[in-house]
């Protein structure tokens, strides 16, 4: 790999301008044309075509003079510091990063090696002038002696002012990201998504680009006049689409991460919907709210199961509503599907008020889960099985919470993203309605 600033020499064949295209065609056919360097016009008016050889064999020179372009002048020359071609100048951000970091490292007397090159980042997330690097880069010990100046070089190569490195999400209940700020004095960024402005601190709050399909779907729902409860609001991933685009009348947003709650409060203000949302800070299992929601969003993975009783309690007693239940589900052929992060709540419907799973699509007068045709979006049998089980459990929970029989019906099972190999992040839209009271 050539280093910037080093003198390089390229061999070229020289001829008159009117013969340039004939020479080019011949050299390309013989696979001798150097595409990494530009064809140059010399001071004497002749044209030099770089070639992929230390010298061009005499037989090729004779072919050019006698057959390709009879009467042409044909000689060899050396181009000092040849100009790179347009193709050579266009390199990927990863290639540019490698070139600039290598040059900077070698200028400081450190030997470049394959270990350092393999340790450079291959992917990142951009948030305005801050680049968030992946967790599996810059792990070699050699980098430590080059900090903190190294980060200025990396940021310059990537065209940003600030730099941070992502770690694994901490298992602290609030899903705090383990992010280290490498360059810059703060981690606050702004991200525009489907016409909605999100501001947050990348060192304290999660932001998943992979959830964009679900945010767009939520934004397309018709929620005019509805009261919604978002049990895991975060910085407003779904709260804001429900308010800004879906037209929800009011949202109760629950969040216990103080940094996310602060970002949510700010995001509600800058998007002009703060008057239609109340933030309930703290553990949503202690939420002092009931019989209020037309719709409940449970946007927590790997499982939102701990929030199911709360979701059942806040639904309106008279008409019920819709639950949007997020879950990570394993999809292994030949194995019994097991949702990740779930506990054995399947026993719920075997309690003092067992619920019957029925086959009548209308469910007229029959308690339990209405088991109709699974929507075509449920393309994996594991999704189907988890959705059926969840619908039955929710029917049982609703019976216990409200003291009367409810019916549940699957409206849709929607894939959000692939979370890991054989693990899918999906959403179940579940309609929940109280059965008519019988005298």
Write out key terms for the chains shown.
439 residues, alpha/beta, 8-stranded mixed β-sheet, 18 strands, 26% helix, elongated, disordered N terminus
Query: How far is the N terminus from the C terminus?
Result: 86 Å
Shape: elongated
- Give the number of DSSP strands: 18
Radius of gyration: 32 Å
- Number of helical regions: 11
Strand order of the largest sheet: 13-12-11-14-15-18-17-16
Sheet having the most strands: 8 strands, mixed
Average pLDDT taken over every residue: 84
- Please estimate the helix content: 25-40%
Unreliable spans: 1-7, 340-367
Strand content: 25-35%
Order of helices and strands: EHEEHEHHHEEHEEEEHEHEHEEHEEHEE
Structural class: alpha/beta
Describe the protein's topology.
Elements: E1 9-15, H1 20-29, E2 40-41, E3 47-50, H2 58-68, E4 75-80, H3 86-89, H4 93-107, H5 114-118, E5 124-127, E6 130-133, H6 149-158, E7 162-169, E8 177-183, E9 188-193, E10 196-201, H7 212-220, E11 227-230, H8 239-244, E12 250-255, H9 258-270, E13 277-281, E14 295-298, H10 308-314, E15 321-330, E16 368-370, H11 381-402, E17 406-420, E18 423-434
Parallel strand pairs: 6-7, 11-12, 11-14, 12-13, 14-15, 16-17
Antiparallel strand pairs: 1-3, 1-4, 2-3, 5-6, 7-8, 9-10, 15-18, 17-18
């Amino acid at each position: 790999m050539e280093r910037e600033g080093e003198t390089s020499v390229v061999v070229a064949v020289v001829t008159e301008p009117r013969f340039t295209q004939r020479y080019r065609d011949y050299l390309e056919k013989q696979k001798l044309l150097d595409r990494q360097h530009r064809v140059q016009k010399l001071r004497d008016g002749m044209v030099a075509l770089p070639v992929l050889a230390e010298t061009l064999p005499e037989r090729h020179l004779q072919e050019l003079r006698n057959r390709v372009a009879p009467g042409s002048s044909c000689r060899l020359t050396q181009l000092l510091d040849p100009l790179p071609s347009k193709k050579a100048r266009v390199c990927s951000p990863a290639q540019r990063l490698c070139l600039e970091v290598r040059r900077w490292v070698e200028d400081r007397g450190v030997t470049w090696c394959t270990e350092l090159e393999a340790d450079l980042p291959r992917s990142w997330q951009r948030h305005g002038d801050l680049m968030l690097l992946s967790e599996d880069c810059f792990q070699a010990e050699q980098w430590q002696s080059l900090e903190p100046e190294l980060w200025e070089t990396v940021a310059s190569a990537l065209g940003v002012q600030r730099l941070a490195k992502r770690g694994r999400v901490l298992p602290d209940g609030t899903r705090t990201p383990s992010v280290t700020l490498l360059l810059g004095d703060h981690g606050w960024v702004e991200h525009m998504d489907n016409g909605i402005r999100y501001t947050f601190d990348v060192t304290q709050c999660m932001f998943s680009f992979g959830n964009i399909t679900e945010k767009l779907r939520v934004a397309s729902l018709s929620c005019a006049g509805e009261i919604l409860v978002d049990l895991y609001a975060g910085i407003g991933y779904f709260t804001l689409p429900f308010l800004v685009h879906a037209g929800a009348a009011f949202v109760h947003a629950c969040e216990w991460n103080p940094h996310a709650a602060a970002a949510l409060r700010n995001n509600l203000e800058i998007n002009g919907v703060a008057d239609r949302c109340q933030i309930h800070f703290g553990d949503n299992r202690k939420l002092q709210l009931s019989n209020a929601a037309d719709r409940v969003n449970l946007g927590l993975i790997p499982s939102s199961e701990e929030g199911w009783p709360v979701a059942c309690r806040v639904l309106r007693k008279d008409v019920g509503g819709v639950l949007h239940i997020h879950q990570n589900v394993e999809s292994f052929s030949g194995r019994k599907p097991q949702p990740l992060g779930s506990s054995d709540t399947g026993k719920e419907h075997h309690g003092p008020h067992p619920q019957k799973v029925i086959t009548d699509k209308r469910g007229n007068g029959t308690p339990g889960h209405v088991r109709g045709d699974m929507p075509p979006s449920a393309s994996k049998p594991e999704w189907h099985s988890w959705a059926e089980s969840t619908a039955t459990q929710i029917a049982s929970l609703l019976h216990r919470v409200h003291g009367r029989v409810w019916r549940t019906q699957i409206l849709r099972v929607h894939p959000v993203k692939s979370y890991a190999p054989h693990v899918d992040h999906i959403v179940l839209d579940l309609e929940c309605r109280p059965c008519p009271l019988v005298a």
